[in-house]
Every structure is written in structure tokens, then in C-alpha cells.
Amino acid sequence: MQELDIQISIEDDGWPPEPALQALCERVLGAAADYLAGNEGQPFPDMIPEVSLVFTDDAAIREINAEWRNQDKPTNVLSFPAFPLVPGGMPGPMLGDIVIARQTVLREADELSKTLEEHLTHLLVHGFLHLFGYDHMDAGEAEIMEGLETRILASLGLSDPYAGQDPI
């Protein structure tokens, strides 16, 4: 199993307790890292790579989204790679940051008839792939990224999020 140093910051009281989030993140991001290394030939640095996760609220993510993406609205997940990376490139020891907004995630999970854990799992995988240079700005990139998400989620026992109306 590919080891990761996962740092968590909880900035909103409505999230599950830190031990539960830590366990979920270790399971999900570990599975994603294993899939990338084993199936996509993704190299990992000799040092254990670090990823930072911020569990926040809609107000905070709206500010971040406005500042960094010029979109003055909340969103479900934002990813900030520590270094520019193309898929398959060697990451540095710090992968980057993933920020997730609780209210948006809960609303979307409800709309999708999914549990918080199921939708959060998808968003963690989605955000993690962004740290490795995957994107969905055009149809070709989206097809590759969505395919990876679907296969990683299947390895975790979850269905294809793109079979229905997924908001990502």
C-alpha cells in the first residue's frame, strides 16, 4: 500500500469527528494512491508524500473560490497542487491541499440520494486526482479523469458517479 502523510484541519463544527475523517481519508486516498501507482504507473517520491485536507464551510470556500478562481460562489471541492504536475509526473514530497465545503457536500449528497460518506469519498478522489495533474477542462481530459474516478471508486465498492447527475 502506498503510504501518505495526511494532515487534516476541521474548520466547521458540522463535520464528523476528526478520527472518523482521518480514517476515511486514509482509506480513500490510500486506495487512490494504490490505484495510480499500480494501474497508471504513477511514480511516488521516496519520502512519504504529504497531503493537506481542510474541511470547512460554504462561506470559507466561497472566499477561496473567489480569490483563486474568480468565482464568487461556494463549490464542493477545491484542489491546490503544491507543484505543477502532469499526469504520470513525479510529485514532490508535498502533494498539495484539498478544501471541501460541508453544506455543499451535504446538499449534493441529498440531491444524489447518497450518504455523506459516499459523496465525500468521490470528492476526495476527485480532489486527489487534481493534485496529480488530472483535469476536466475539456472533453478528453474529463473522460480520462472521470474514468479514473469511476475505477478508483469501484475499488472502494462504490458505483459510477457519472452514471447519474453528479455535480462535479
Describe the structure.
The structure is a single chain. The chain is an alpha/beta fold and 168 residues long. The chain has a single domain, classed as Metalloproteases ("zincins"), catalytic domain (Collagenase (Catalytic Domain), 3-Layer(aba) Sandwich). The protein has helices spanning 18-39, 58-69, 102-111, 116-131, 139-155, and strands spanning 5-10, 50-56, 77-81, 94-101. The protein has a four-stranded mixed sheet, with helices on both faces. Helix 1 packs across helix 4, helix 3 crosses helix 4 and helix 4 (116-131) crosses helix 5 (139-155). The chain is globular, with a radius of gyration of 15 Å. The two termini are 28 Å apart.
Distance N to C terminus: 28 Å
Strand order of the largest sheet: 1-2-4-3
What's the CATH architecture name?
A: 3-Layer(aba) Sandwich
**CATH-derived topology:** Collagenase (Catalytic Domain)
Overall pLDDT score: 94
Q: From the alpha-carbon coordinates, what is the Rg to the nearest angstrom?
A: 15 Å
Helix/strand order: EHEHEEHHH
CATH class: Alpha Beta
The level of helicity is 40-55%
CATH superfamily (homologous) name: Metalloproteases ("zincins"), catalytic domain
What portion of the residues fall into strands of 2 or more residues? 15-25%
Largest sheet properties = 4 strands, mixed
Low-pLDDT sequence parts? none
How many strands appear in the DSSP assignment?
4
Question: How many DSSP H or I helices?
Answer: 5
How many domain modules? 1
Shape: globular
Instruction: Work out the oligomeric state of the chains in this entry.
Output: single chain
Give the helix/strand class. alpha/beta
